[in-house]
């Protein structure tokens, strides 16, 4: 029983509220006046019908109530019910149009009925139904359910005790020939006989509201599937899928009812729900299905209901009711865990039982559904199994891990190249403007937005900053015209998906630049070609940034010689800059084959996406900036190492995800449901969901930019610069480490800040262990008193607070706003 | 600290009675009180008496003056409290010799410190360094000279700068969301920053109120706001806005007086205070204070060191050798030494440094600067082993392989 309760938890509060609303319909709560009216009405109806008419008091009561004591209508209704199936359809229309006072839910449903009456007549039966057995089935069942529902309505509280073997019952059904392992899914035993819903009686009995509504909804579904889907085979799939959905929803909704000793009025309430709302909720519930085990069972159950069987066909509605019951029965199973295991053991890469059955039914429509959990968009269309699988993940209070073999999944998928690059350079070299231009040219920013920026920029007298505003989104950044923090933007070319990390050039924000560079595969160094500015840049951040990206481990650098328009696209100037820069970059440790020079103009847009239009630039025949970017080789990452991710940002993602962190995974892989440890706090958290490049995914690997939504952790424990790591082999906090560093400045024992990505902590160089030979690494001099710039030295760094660092990672040591050294942790 | 009575003999023994008036005085007392000294101060002690006839006990708390022979000194800079523990050395009504007691020195309560000259390995009494420290302690110019807020986005350190120490009063660490692309997302960042400013201002005001307690409102000290980028100026703007709209009287008063000074620093970590104190804005306001001088001194030393011409040396052994060779003498020789070295529990170690200081000052004729270990400059010096020297002539190579013991010892002792 506990099982049932657990499941009920997943149902939204709203659902309960809904049930409350429908309680108004409760027949049992009749007031004395109602009863009196009912009694008198019955007498009148009896008179009108004549004594020979085969209808019970109950039926009359029901219909009277239905028509709110309108004797005339009731009589017509009862007569028509008794006559034939057409009459039933007629009735449908009527019942739809009839207005029941007092219940808002009922008034809402009026609209769709007119449509119904036109489409739901036997002649206009959707073609798909006639070809599809399942659909045909559905039709008959709809007719039959009058009886079924009548019974249902009045007997559901008594639990039938008829027992029979499921295997025997279905023994001649083709889909029973499924492998042994999959058969385990079907745990539901007696379904139909329990409620006496079989038989497909077409005469006698009458139509309840519930039945009418169910039929109506079904019809609407059918209608919609017909209207949306073309005559292609897919429409059948769609129909069944929709039907499936419908069934789940009822199934889900029925659970709380079951929890409170199911009673009819509540079920009626289910049916009364306006259609649009139902669909909405359907989707919602589709997502919020609490765990995969329920879902799987439902899916297998579905296959049963779709199948024709010897004892007459159950209507879809009947199967709804029974599958719900099946679920209750299932929940009675004492062992929740075992159930979960069964569900988990199912290999979702295989076609689901559902698919097997459908395939057998209709070879045309059979599409082998591959469970690609990482492509949720596809999953929706490919069948319920995937949908269910997804459900189990998204909204549950405790997220279940799916134990995906991420590496295998990763290898399976062929994807587009992806590269991150950091844009660096001296302040006001035009980094942001160049990138803004690039994004604009590549249509990553639309014209309207751009116009808006232009206007706004001009209004505050900074017209030339319009392109930069694409990246400089902060209010302060715009006010001051300076990039402060890394801006991340995406664009794609034919070959590659790029992520721009636009770094600030100002010396105060070098820590931010370090954070950006540590996520980059290669760098674009932007240089201001205009006279004087290049020279001052070379002394300033052009130099520092280039050294930094190199020491962070970036190998390839594209030098964009910007503002060529300011020097009239002078070839001489370009070559002068190229020479000086390549000399410098080589000395900084870049291999000359990894350094390329591109002249361009961010403001004019020359040589970014297209060749410069300026005739003075005709001397240049090399590639444009974008072409040069496309040359990038994808980097490789340690996917199989334990997870490491430096947190770039902690923010409130949305209402659903109150705690999100973003960053680039440095090593290893991660998947939804996994437990991770946040260092240095050492707190555990669970991954609720994750997004790769703004797309929800089930897993991510090193090298990808992810947003991870966490749960089970207090935000206090999360800071930018913290490290997410795997719980199995977490990174350790250190207070002291040894590092081999290259000195950019004089090094003595001194106060420094240690930077690694977003992480930065104060500390001091405690000891200079020894001066090392650059090439061999042997100690030249022990305990030097002072280290000259350019030499390699092994130092001990003591930190003020313990932070997660491990060898071999690259660290940057800064003091007084200048980079003094960079090196490798040992 | 007020000097109540001084009685010092020529040989170095003697006693002084002092009255601490400010929390900073506790730091002076911390430097003055050494193990084996005799300290007399008022104390509250629980005395248990046993009735001789029945064996039943009764205990009571008594206020009494106790004299202890100091065993250890514990200083809490943030609370400004000094706990001195030792063995009672003078008997009185309630106590016996040899019982242990921890004296808590209190503001506005006199204490008497007596140092004795003992045998060859005993205490030196009032040596030159101790006398200098005493002079420094009773110097009336003092008090908090500045409040500094060293900050960056999401991090702020609020500290009080006094003549002799920098006390970190509060560290604020708030997570400010970064800017993200997407419409309206930059507001996250703005909101986060606003919240951060509000937290810092609240904390700052709380600290200032504590500081202003018992002082007249005319007390004037600058509040330095230091940060990289625009955080500090943004904070100042926030302060002015808040002062105008809903600020307390104190805040409005300070805003009116323009007590806030925005200074550039390269980071929000505490050791950037260094740059703050070196900035022209601050020097103009606070020149001739001890910490400004000390900071300048350390910068000078590092500049010398960079030249690597053999005239700047650091480390205990190196400096001792340099002094030995007479390099720290007249004409530019400067010995920089941290207070923390004199705080050594080991008398011999202290004596070693006192002798060195005496030698430089009296024999060599060099200049001696004792740097406060609780200032940023002192911390930088401590990084170098607590002692450094600028020489009058270059000494090229000094090899001390295997010598390793000195600075870790002293470093760890520094609070």
TrEMBL record, chain A:
Q: Which UniProt keywords apply?
A: Cytoplasm, Elongation factor, GTP-binding, Hydrolase, Mitochondrion, Nucleotide-binding, Protein biosynthesis, Translation regulation
What is the protein name for this chain? Elongation factor 1 alpha-like protein
An example of a Gene Ontology cellular component annotation for this protein is:
cytosol
Organism of derivation: Capronia epimyces CBS 606.96
Domain Tr-type G residues, every copy: 416-637
Give me the ranges of the annotated region Disordered: 15-40, 95-133, 210-238, 250-296, 350-385
Compositionally biased tracts (Basic and acidic residues): 250-266
The record's listing under CDD domains reads:
EF1_alpha, HBS1-like_II
UniProt GO molecular function: GTP binding; GTPase activity; translation elongation factor activity
Say where the protein is mainly found.
Answer: cytoplasm
Name the InterPro entries on file. Answer: EFTu-like_2 (IPR004161), G_TR_CS (IPR031157), GTP-eEF1A_C (IPR054696), HBS1-like_N (IPR015033), P-loop_NTPase (IPR027417), Small_GTP-bd (IPR005225), T_Tr_GTP-bd_dom (IPR000795), TRAFAC_GTPase_members (IPR050100)
Biased composition range(s): Acidic residues = 15-31
Catalytic activity, per the record? GTP + H2O = GDP + phosphate + H(+)
UniProtKB/TrEMBL annotation, chain B:
List, alphabetically, the GO terms of the cellular component aspect: cytoplasm; Dom34-Hbs1 complex
Write down what this protein is called: Protein DOM34 homolog
Keyword hit for Cell cycle: yes
- Supply the alphabetized keyword list: Cell cycle, Cell division, Cytoplasm, Meiosis, Metal-binding, Mitosis
Where in or outside the cell it occurs: the entry states: Cytoplasm
GO terms for biological process, alphabetical: cell division; meiotic cell cycle; nonfunctional rRNA decay; nuclear-transcribed mRNA catabolic process, no-go decay; nuclear-transcribed mRNA catabolic process, non-stop decay; ribosome disassembly; RNA surveillance; translation
Q: Which InterPro entries match?
A: eFR1_2_sf, eRF1_2, eRF1_3, eRF1_Pelota-like_N, Pelota/DOM34_N, Pelota_N, Ribosomal_eL30-like_sf, TF_pelota
The family this protein is said to belong to: Belongs to the eukaryotic release factor 1 family. Pelota subfamily.
- Provide any one GO MF term from the record: metal ion binding
Q: Name the cofactor(s).
A: a divalent metal cation
Against Pfam families, the record matches this protein to: eRF1_2, eRF1_3, Pelota_N
């Amino acid at each position: 029983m506990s099982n049932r309760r657990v499941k009920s938890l997943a149902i939204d509060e709203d659902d309960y509220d809904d049930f409350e609303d429908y309680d108004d319909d409760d027949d049992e709560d009749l007031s004395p006046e109602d009863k009196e009216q009912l009694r008198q009405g019955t007498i009148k109806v009896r008179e009108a019908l004549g004594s020979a008419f085969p209808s019970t008091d109950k039926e009359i009561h029901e219909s009277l109530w239905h028509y709110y004591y309108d004797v005339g209508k009731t009589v017509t209704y009862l007569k028509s019910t008794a006559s034939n199936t057409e009459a039933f359809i007629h009735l449908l229309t009527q019942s739809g149009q009839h207005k029941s006072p007092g219940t808002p839910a009922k008034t809402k449903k009026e609209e769709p009925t007119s449509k119904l009456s036109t489409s739901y007549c036997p002649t206009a039966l959707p073609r798909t139904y006639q070809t599809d057995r399942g659909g045909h089935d559905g039709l008959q069942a709809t007719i039959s359910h009058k009886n079924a529902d009548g019974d249902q309505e009045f007997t559901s509280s008594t639990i039938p005790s008829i027992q029979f073997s499921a295997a025997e019952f279905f023994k001649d059904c083709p889909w029973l020939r499924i492998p042994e392992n999959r058969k385990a899914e079907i745990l539901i035993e007696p379904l139909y006989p329990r409620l006496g819903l079989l038989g497909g009686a077409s005469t006698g009995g009458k139509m309840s509201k519930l039945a009418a509504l169910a039929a109506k909804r079904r019809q609407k579904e059918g209608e919609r599937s017909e209207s949306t889907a073309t005559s292609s085979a897919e429409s059948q799939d769609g129909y069944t899928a929709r039907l499936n959905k419908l069934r789940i929803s009822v199934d889900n909704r029925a659970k709380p009812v079951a929890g409170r000793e199911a009673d009819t009025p509540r079920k009626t309430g289910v049916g009364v729900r306006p259609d649009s709302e139902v669909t909405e909720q359907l989707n919602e519930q589709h997502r919020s299905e609490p765990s995969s085990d329920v879902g799987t069972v439902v899916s297998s159950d579905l296959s049963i209901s779709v199948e024709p069987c010897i004892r007459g066909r159950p209507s879809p509605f009947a199967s709804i009711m029974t599958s719900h019951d099946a679920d209750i029965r299932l929940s009675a199973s004492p062992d929740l865990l075992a159930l979960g295991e069964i569900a988990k053991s199912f290999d979702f890469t295989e076609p689901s039982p559902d698919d097997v059955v459908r395939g057998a039914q209709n070879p045309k429509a059979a599409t082998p559904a591959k469970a690609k959990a990482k492509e949720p968009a596809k999953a929706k269309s490919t069948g319920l199994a995937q949908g269910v699988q997804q459900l189990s993940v998204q909204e549950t209070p405790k997220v279940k891990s799916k134990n995906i073999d991420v590496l295998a999944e990763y290898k399976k998928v062929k994807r587009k190249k992806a590269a991150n690059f950091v844009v660096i350079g001296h302040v006001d070299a035009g980094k942001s403007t160049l990138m803004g231009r690039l994004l604009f040219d590549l249509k990553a920013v639309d014209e309207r937005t751009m116009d808006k920026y232009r206007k706004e920029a001009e209004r505050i007298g900074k017209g030339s900053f319009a392109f930069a505003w694409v990246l400089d989104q902060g209010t302060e950044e715009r006010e001051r015209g300076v990039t402060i923090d890394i801006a991340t933007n995406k664009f794609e070319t034919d070959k590659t998906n790029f992520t721009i990390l636009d770094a600030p050039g100002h010396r105060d924000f070098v820590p931010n630049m370090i954070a950006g560079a540590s996520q980059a595969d290669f760098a674009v160094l932007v240089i201001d070609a205009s006279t004087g500015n290049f020279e001052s840049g070379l002394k300033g951040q052009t130099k520092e940034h280039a050294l930094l990206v190199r020491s962070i481990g970036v190998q390839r650098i594209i030098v964009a010689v910007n503002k060529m328009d300011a020097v009239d696209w002078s070839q001489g100037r370009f070559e002068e800059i190229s020479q000086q820069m390549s000399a410098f970059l080589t000395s900084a440790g870049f291999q000359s084959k990894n350094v390329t020079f591109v002249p361009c103009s961010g403001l004019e847009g020359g040589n970014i996406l297209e060749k410069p239009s300026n005739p003075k630039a005709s001397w240049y025949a090399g590639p444009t900036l974008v072409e040069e970017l496309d040359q990038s080789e994808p980097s490789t990452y340690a996917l199989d190492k334990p997870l490491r991710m430096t947190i770039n940002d902690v923010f409130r993602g949305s209402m659903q995800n109150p705690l999100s962190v973003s960053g680039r995974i440095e090593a290893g892989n991660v998947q939804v449901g996994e437990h991770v440890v946040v260092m240095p706090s050492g707190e555990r958290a669970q991954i609720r969901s994750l997004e790769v490049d703004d797309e929800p995914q089930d897993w991510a690997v090193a090298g990808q930019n992810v947003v991870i939504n966490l749960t089970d952790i207090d935000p206090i424990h999360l800071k930018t610069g913290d490290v997410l790591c795997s719980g199995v082999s977490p990174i350790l906090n250190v207070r002291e480490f040894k590092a081999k560093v290259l000195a950019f400045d004089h090094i003595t024992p001194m106060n420094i800040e240690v930077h690694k990505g977003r992480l930065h902590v104060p500390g001091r160089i405690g000891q200079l262990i020894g001066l090392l030979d650059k090439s061999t690494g042997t100690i030249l001099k022990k305990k030097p008193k002072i280290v000259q710039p350019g030499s390699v030295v092994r130092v001990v760094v003591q930190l003020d607070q313990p932070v997660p660092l491990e060898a071999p990672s690259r660290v940057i040591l800064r003091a007084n706003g200048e980079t003094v050294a960079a090196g490798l942790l040992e | 600290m007020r000097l109540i009575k001084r009685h010092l003999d020529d040989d170095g023994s003697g006693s002084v009675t002092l009255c601490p008036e400010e929390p900073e005085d506790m730091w002076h007392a911390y430097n003055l009180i050494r193990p084996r000294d005799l300290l007399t101060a008022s104390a509250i002690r629980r005395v248990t008496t046993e009735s001789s006839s029945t064996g039943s006990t009764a205990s009571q708390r008594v206020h009494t003056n106790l004299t202890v022979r100091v065993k250890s000194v514990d200083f809490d800079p943030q609370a400004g409290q000094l706990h001195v523990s030792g063995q009672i050395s003078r008997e009185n009504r309630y106590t016996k010799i040899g019982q242990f007691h921890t004296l808590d020195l209190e503001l506005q309560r006199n204490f008497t410190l007596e140092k004795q000259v003992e045998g060859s390995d005993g205490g030196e009494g009032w040596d030159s360094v101790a006398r200098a420290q005493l002079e420094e302690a009773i110097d009336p110019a003092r008090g908090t000279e500045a409040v500094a807020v060293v900050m960056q986005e999401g991090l702020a350190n609020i500290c009080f700068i006094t003549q002799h120490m920098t006390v970190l009063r509060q560290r604020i660490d708030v997570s400010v969301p970064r800017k993200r692309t997407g419409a309206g997302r930059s507001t996250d960042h703005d909101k986060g920053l606003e919240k951060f400013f509000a937290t810092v201002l609240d904390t700052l005001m709380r600290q200032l109120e504590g500081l202003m307690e018992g002082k007249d409102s005319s007390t004037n000290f600058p509040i330095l706001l230091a940060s990289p980028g625009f955080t500090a100026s943004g904070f100042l703007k926030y302060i002015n806005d808040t002062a105008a709209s809903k600020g307390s009287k104190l805040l409005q008063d300070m805003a009116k007086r323009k007590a806030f000074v925005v200074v550039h620093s390269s980071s929000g970590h505490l050791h950037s205070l260094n740059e703050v104190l070196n900035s022209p804005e601050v020097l103009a306001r606070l020149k001739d204070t001890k910490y400004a001088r000390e900071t300048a001194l350390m910068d000078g030393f590092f500049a010398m060191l960079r030249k690597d011409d053999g005239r700047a040396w650091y480390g205990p052994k190196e400096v001792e050798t340099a002094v030995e060779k007479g390099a720290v003498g007249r004409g530019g020789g400067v010995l920089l030494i941290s207070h923390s070295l004199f705080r050594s529990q080991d008398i011999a170690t202290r004596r070693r440094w006192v002798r060195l200081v005496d030698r430089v000052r009296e024999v060599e004729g060099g200049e001696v600067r004792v740097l406060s270990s609780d200032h940023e400059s002192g911390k930088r010096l401590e990084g170098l082993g607590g002692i450094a020297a600028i020489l009058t002539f270059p000494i090229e190579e000094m090899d001390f392989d295997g010598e390793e013991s000195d600075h870790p010892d002293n470093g760890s002792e520094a609070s």
